[in-house]
Structures are given as structure tokens and as C-alpha cells.
Amino acid sequence: MIYDLHTHSNASDGFLSPQALVERAQAKGVTALALTDHDTLAGQAEAAAAAAQAGITLIPGIEFSTQWQGRSIHIVGLGFDPAAASLKQGIERQAASRTQRALTIGERLAKAGIHNAYEGALELAGASVLGRPHFAQYLVRCGAVKDVASAFKRYLGAGKIGDVKQLWPGVEEAVGWIKAAGGLAVLAHPDKYDMTRSKLCQLLGDFREAGGQAIEVISGKQVNTLTDKLARLAGQFSLAASCGSDFHIPNQPWQELGAFGKLPDFCQPVWQLLPGHQAS
Ligand code: MN
Ligand code: MN
Ligand code: MN
Predict the structure, then answer these.
(1) Residue 56's domain is classified under what CATH number?
(2) Is the terminal CB of the chain with fewer CB neighbours within 10 Å at N or C?
(3) Relative to the alpha carbon of 36, which ligand is closest?
(4) How far is CA 102 from CA 41, 122, 182, 230, 272, in A?
(5) 0.85 cut: is pTM over it?
């Protein structure tokens, strides 16, 4: 079995449709997949149908944006009931937060002489989650900048007029949504937050206290020393271990579907905690 429990489709910021993602996962030998789009379940139904066709297991998934001590932290939910009211409320809250931020970006850009940016970005986003990349595309389209990179450099990047901080819920709130829906809460990519070891331990303690059950011991291709370090931390905090590619786009070999090492033997794999798991 190859479990890939962290992937994205074009329902959020991934490149492939949910169906194309599932087909690629099957081609790469993945046998159990979680589609974990940012703050949305919009791709789940299409992914489930494609998984049934492909003969692979689809585990319901999502990746929530949260904040902890002023930092942006991602919490993956796995194996929940997708129809649960708590998830629906959580997703609505996240959408409202994104909309508020996007409106503020639009107002700020208007002050800089760029009008209708919110409406333009919304149209460019279509069915996917509205974000800064859509504002960047709009700035290119209306001729304010020559390309997306310049859009970030002049208007949207850190410290620029369109750099608006987002207000995300606390870690414990998102963990609560996932658990109330019968799912498992997993701390995503612990190594990507640029924290000291003591800060990370503090986060792990708070996460576990909130009801979190696992951490991503593996996130894409990574060195064995990192896998080992995270596996030991998981053990130290009595947390199970998850693994995933964090796939977004083809041709990024370090995020290829299913293409990462195995969890160390001493870890408890998170899938053993999933409802309906058959211990083997
Ligand atoms: Mn992403
Ligand atoms: Mn993430
Ligand atoms: Mn991700």
C-alpha cells in the first residue's frame, strides 16, 4: 500500500482537476489517496467518482489555514464525514475570511489607481478559491504590470500596498471542526514553519492538547535525518505519523504523488486510526 495523504487539485491551488489528480496518483502507484484542498471540499465528489473508477481508496481530506502565536499553521483533516455541519461551518468561516481579505486588497489597489480588482480577480478565480494569484493575473490583464512576478513585486508582495494579512482561526478551532466531523487532525509539514525546536515542541504540545492526533512525518521528498527527527517528535508527543506529497503541479519532482520514502517502523501510521481500518 502507498498512502499519499496530502494533495491539491484545481479546487484550490493545484493544477490538475480532481479526476486527473486521481488518475495520476493511480499511475504513480498510490493505493490510498487524500485530496486535501485548502479550506474546501469542492473537489471531493469528483475525486471519489474517479477513485472508484481507478480502484484506489479515497480518504476524505482538507487542509485548513490557521494561526498560532501569529504564525500561519496548516491543519489537515482526514477521514471525516464530508456532510458534517461542523465542517460546513468551518469552510464558510474560512471563505468569509478570504472574501474579507480580498475586498480589502481590492480597496487598497483602488487607492493605488487600480479599479475593480476585486471583481476582476473573482472572475479569474472562477470556481477555485480566490487568492493573491488571481489579483496578480488581473493586474497583468489590466496592463498595470507586465507579468505575475512584477505584480507581486510592485503590489502584492510583502510590505506592498496589497499585502493584507489574513485572520485565520486558532489551531484548536480547526482541530475542533475536524474532530466534530469524526475525522483525524494532522499537523501539516511541521518543518516548513521555520521554528526553533523548542517553539515546535510548544506547538506540538498545544496541538495535542487541542485534540490533534498526528503530524506529517513525511512531506514530499525530504532527507532521512528530517524524517527521523519528526518521527521521534511524534513519538515523544504520542502522536501518530502521516505522510503525503503536498502535490500541487506536475513537474515538481520533490512533490510527486506517492514519491517519498516510507515511515519509520517505530511510528504509528495515521491510517491505523481511520474509521473502518482493518488492522493487518
Ligand atoms: Mn497550496
Ligand atoms: Mn500547507
Ligand atoms: Mn498543502
Answers:
(1) 3.20.20.140
(2) C
(3) 3
(4) 20, 9, 32, 35, 40
(5) yes
Q: Which residue is it, cell 464525514?
A: 81
List the one residue out of 246, 276, 237, 242 whose CA is nearest residue 262: 242
List pLDDT tens digits, range 58-117. Answer: 999 999 999 999 999 999 999 999 999 999 999 999 999 989 999 999 999 999 999 999
Into how many domains does the chain fold?
1
Whole-number Å distance, alpha carbon 112 to ligand 3 midpoint, is 32
Residue 149 has pLDDT above 90, yes or no: yes
Ligand 1 center to 229 CA (angstroms)? 24
Q: Which one of the ligands is nearest to 34 CA? A: 3
279 Cα to the center of ligand 1, angstroms: 32
Neighbours of 238 (CB within 10 A): 9
Distance 37 CA to ligand 2 centre (A): 9
